[in-house]
C-alpha cells in the first residue's frame, strides 16, 4: 500500500489516481478527507484524516504501508499553518513516522533550487527536509520538480488573462524559467517505484525545451493561443524585495512567495531534460499543447474554464 500525503493537492491527486489505475492500494491523507477526497474514495482509495502538524495522525497513517509520497506543502501558509510547521517540522515528523513503521521507500517531493541559502524560506525548508530524510536511514528518493505548469503558468498568469484580461507579473518577467506538468511528475514517480537504482537518489524533473520561457513569454503564448489580450502590470523588483521583508512577520507565506518570485525573475532557472529522458522514458508536456487542450475555445477543458467566468 502507498500512502500519499497531500492527496488533495494537484500532484498528490494525480499520483493517487495513477496508482489506483495500476491496481495498487492507496491510502490518501488529507486534513478534510470527506470533503476533498470523495473522488479518490469512490475510485477505491482508503481516505484518512491527518495533518503534518499532528505527529500522532502521521504515525497512524504510516502503519502498514510500504511506500510514502510526501507531496503536501504550505507555501502560502501563515499562523498555525505557516510553512515552517508544515514544510520543515511536519515533514521531519512524517519521516520519523515512516521510519518507525518500516516504510521501504519514501518519495519526497522537494523543489528544484532547494538550498540552505535560498532567499525564499520555502526552499530552505525543502532543503532541510531533504537533509533530514537523507540522514534518517529510510530508503528514499527525492524528486525536485521545476515550476508546476498548472500553477505557475496557468493559475498565476493564464487564468487571470482568460477570465479578467488583467495579469500581474512579479518583477520584470524576463527571467527564463521552466514549467513542468503535474501528470509528467506522476509518471516519473511511477517509474521510480520500479527502479531500484533510484533509492538514495535526488532526481530533477522539468518540462521540455519549449517550456523554458519567461513570464512575459508565457503571457504572450496565452494571448496568441486563446485570442485574448491582457493588460499586464509589473510589480517592480525593488517593491518585491522590500515587501518580502516587511511581510515576513505578518504573512510569511506571501513573503516567501515574493522572495521566490524575485529570485526566479533575476536568475536563469531553465532545465535541460536530456539526462532525465535518457534514464526515464517520459512523455513531457509542452505548455503550448497544454493551453490548446485546456484553454482554447472548443476544447473540453476550456468549457470548464468558461463555465467559471463571470457572466457566463
From TrEMBL:
The keyword tRNA-binding does not apply. It holds the Pfam family NmrA. One of its GO terms (biological process) is photosynthesis. The keyword Transferase does not apply. It comes from the Bacteria. InterPro entries: HCF244-like, NAD(P)-bd_dom_sf, NmrA-like. Keywords: Photosynthesis, Photosystem II. One of its GO terms (cellular component) is photosystem II. Residues 2-250 form the NmrA-like domain. PANTHER family: PROTEIN HIGH CHLOROPHYLL FLUORESCENCE PHENOTYPE 244, CHLOROPLASTIC (PTHR47128:SF2), PTHR47128. This is NmrA-like domain-containing protein.
